[in-house]
């Protein structure tokens, strides 16, 4: 078990994590700090707890938008797959018609 030090708004937080997650936790900490700094530049000075709530809300909002986009893309992929299935059926039907025409021409 590793302990990672992350700094958010000048404060150091010790976060315990699996040894394999050290780099990920450090990167996430930097991302949260960057969001916090951006918020501070926009809204001015706020308490650490309010700042972390605001960052959490921003990240939750982005996550919600990403989930909505993923659901939309999933629907589009499903519709494309249905279209591919219909197209394959049409191609098969055309192939059968062509074969039938070729058979009739061979007999004639």
What secondary-structure arrangement, pairings included, does this model have?
Layout: E1 2-8, E2 11-17, H1 22-43, H2 48-107
Helix pairs in contact: 1-2
- Structural class by SSE content: alpha+beta
Secondary-structure element order, as H and E? EEHH
Strand percent estimate: 5-15%
Oligomerization status of the protein chains: single chain
Polypeptide structure, described:
This protein has about 110 residues and is α+β, with helices and mostly antiparallel strands. The chain has two helices and two strands, in the order ββαα. The chain has one domain. Helices cover about 75% and strands about 15% of the residues. A two-stranded antiparallel ribbon has the order 1-2.
Brief overview, please?
By secondary structure, the chain is an alpha+beta fold.
What are the main properties of this structure?
2 strands, two-stranded antiparallel ribbon, about 110 residues, 2 helices, single chain, about 75% helix, alpha+beta, elongated
